[in-house]
Amino acid sequence: MLVKDEAKAKELKAKIDAGEDFASLAKDHSSCPSKANGGDLGTFQRGQMVKEFDDKVFSMCLGEVSEPVKTQFGYHIIKLNKINEAKIRPFEEVKDEVRAHVMQIKQMNAFKKVIDGLKDKYKPEILV
Q1: CA–CA separation, 53 vs 121, rounded Å?
Q2: Is residue 48 within 8 Å of residue 41, measured between CB atoms?
Q3: CA neighbor of 23 nearest in space, from 84, 72, 79
């Protein structure tokens, strides 16, 4: 769950520690769109969230509720509901994703080359 100020985050954490339901509190108090799901963000991989949030989540134990974690968005109280084991996916399963990613990189590089060529040719000026 996400709240704007630290005092509110500490108050909510104390309520959770006293036995109140995390999901109910998230629905009533969180400013995150996930509040509709009781604060459930679903699953995500390391590096998908802001660093402070990511660092905390990946150091927690299953079922643990964190102390308030400050990020650029406010103060998060995190409850870890599930841990998925890391696995190596077979190439056949990921080859289309890899192909699309490589194609995207090639397109971006080609686009940058055209833009750079136009900048060299037409020498853009900044007029004030």
Answers
A1: 46
A2: no
A3: 79
SS3 2: strand
d(CA 5, CA 76): 10
Residues 57/51, Cβ–Cβ less than 8 Å: no
Angle at 34 between CA 29 and CA 38, to 5 degrees: 60
**Per-residue pLDDT tens digits for 25-71:** 999 999 999 999 999 999 998 899 999 999 999 999 999 999 999 99
Q: What is the DSSP string of 49-112?
A: S-HHHHHHHTTPPTT-BPPPEEETTEEE--B----PPP-PPPHHHHHHHHHHHHHHHHHHHHHH
Residue 42 neighbours by CB under 8 Å, 6+ apart = none
Structural contact between residues 50 and 71, judged by C-beta atoms closer than 8 angstroms? yes
User: In sequence order, which residues have a C-beta less than 8 Å from that of residue 72 and are 6 or more positions away?
Assistant: 50
- The β-bridge partners of 2 are 76
Q: Is the pTM of the predicted complex or chain greater than 0.90?
A: no
- For residue 76, the cross-strand partners are 2, 69
